[in-house]
Write a structure and sequence with these properties.
- This protein has seven helices and seven strands, in the order βαβαβαβαβαβααβ.
- By secondary structure, the chain is of the alpha/beta class.
- The chain has a single domain, classed as NAD(P)-binding Rossmann-like Domain (Rossmann fold, 3-Layer(aba) Sandwich).
- It has a seven-stranded parallel β-sheet, sandwiched between helices.
- Helix 3 packs parallel to helix 4.
- Bound molecules: NADP nicotinamide-adenine-dinucleotide phosphate.
- NADP nicotinamide-adenine-dinucleotide phosphate (NAP) binds next to helix 1, helix 4 and strand 5.
- The site of NADP nicotinamide-adenine-dinucleotide phosphate has 24 residues, from helix 1, helix 4 and strand 5.
């Protein structure tokens, strides 16, 4: 259970439905986890949710990685001073907001907001976190399957997913053998705690903790999968 003992991993989006489960799994594997959020109240809820986990070390930090270049540098300097270089980084941010409507009904305002929340913020987060990784470290970014397959009614999310896939794979190629390993993990619907509570989670969907197990293997870097930048976790048994 202590596969990640001695490793420090930063999670952007740790308060989210996926982020909280991934954070839990990383702690269960013995990691020191730096859980980031823009919102102190959500961090407090995260601490309460994870209070029963007695392995690993949880550090919660109010920090916004969605910043312009100067702001990114300030955050980066702050994190480096406090934690040094990270062994791993998980990026599980995003905001659907009101984006689920047919493309023909997307206003300019909604377009700008959706691209900001589901693409620009991801670019800015990667720009901040990649230089903070150890050379043998790893960053894992999540995107949804609608990158590859049309989801009528959620087109704006699909097109940002496709752009994020390109962003992360390009970043992986640019880092190549000189920098940290960069992974894009394409996922289907996930059994988040909120969906389970509402009774709308299906049994063949992955739990957030399942994603955490795979991410933990990628960070350790000693499996065949860790040699490839692109991965899919669509549904159990499929
Ligand atoms: N859940 C699924 O079934 C599923 C399936 C496919 C893809 N995905 C993708 O996976 C990602 C995470 O999903 P989720 O269900 O965990 O979402 P979620 O519950 O809404 O959590 C996302 C987290 O991202 C952070 N965030 C949102 N906008 C941000 C911004 N501009 N800058 C920095 N942080 C921001 C928020 O944290 P704070 O407000 O605390 O800062 C929030 O807690 C999303 O990109 C989603 O589209 C999810």
């Amino acid at each position: 259970m202590n596969k990640l003992f001695g490793k420090t991993i930063v999670v952007a989006g740790a308060t989210g439905g996926i982020g909280e489960g991934v954070t839990k799994l990383l702690l269960q594997h013995g990691a020191k986890v730096v859980a980031l959020s823009r919102n102190e109240e959500k961090l407090e809820q995260l601490r309460a949710y994870l209070s029963g986990v007695d392995t690993g070390n949880l550090i919660t930090l109010k920090e916004n990685l969605d910043q312009d270049q100067a702001g990114s540098r300030e955050v980066s300097d702050r994190l480096k001073e406090q934690f040094g270089h990270f062994d791993g980084a998980i990026v599980t941010i995003g905001n659907w907001g009101a984006a689920n409507r047919s493309l023909i009904d997307v206003s300019d305002e909604l377009w700008e907001q959706a691209v900001q929340d589901n693409l620009t913020s991801h670019f800015r987060t990667l720009r901040t976190l990649v230089p903070l990784l150890k050379k043998d470290g790893a960053l894992i970014h999540l995107s949804g399957l609608s990158a590859d397959t049309p989801y009528p009614g959620a087109g704006i999310i699909g097109l940002t997913n496709a752009a994020k896939k390109s962003l992360v794979l390009t970043m992986a190629a640019e880092q190549g053998s000189i920098g940290p390993r960069i992974y894009e993990l394409m996922i289907g619907p996930i059994r988040t705690r909120e969906r389970v509570t509402r009774g709308i989670a299906r049994s063949n969907w992955y739990d957030p903790e399942d994603l955490g197990v795979f991410m933990s293997e990628l960070i350790q870097g000693d499996t065949e999968a860790s040699q490839k930048p692109l991965h899919y976790m669509v549904q159990r048994g499929g």
